[in-house]
Amino acid sequence: MAEDKTNVMRLLDQKKIPYAPRRYDVSDGALDGATAAARLGIAPETCFKTLVTVGASKQYHVFVIPVERELDLKAAAKAAGEKSIEMLKQAQLLPLTGYVHGGCSPIGMKKRFPTIIDAPAEALPEMTVSAGKIGRQITLSPQDLAGYTGAVFRAVSRQAGGM
User: Fold this and answer.
1) What does each C-alpha distance from 49 to 121, 138, 162 come to in angstroms?
2) pTM for the whole thing?
3) Which of 16, 82, 119, 145 is the most buried (most CB within 10 A)?
């Protein structure tokens, strides 16, 4: 049976950007990134989540950070050139991006937003991000992801629960 492609995969195919499709079980409702990494059998530092924020300017920004880390709002605001930044409310995610919580990809949002990938990703040979559907991921080179999304690499995360 042929792999059913997500919109993210079709977009990458159009640009001839190589990626590996990944799938994991979400029947128990576990949507967190650490569970996804474990079920995919990959190191959590190579599995990334996509976070959408809104700055003081009302501009939206996308951040791609390792699943076991959290967005450092001060560093994120500085990297985005904003006075301050806050997480987008979950109810706004689908109308703004076309994606649901747990299936948000930096690729193929309804509009293109400024995107920042956490700096450690730049040195990785490959990284895994959402393929735009819950339970679906893609693995690709950080440079290909940055090239496609127009992203820059900046240090914007910290240990979860850290100050």
Assistant:
1) 12, 12, 18
2) 0.95
3) 145
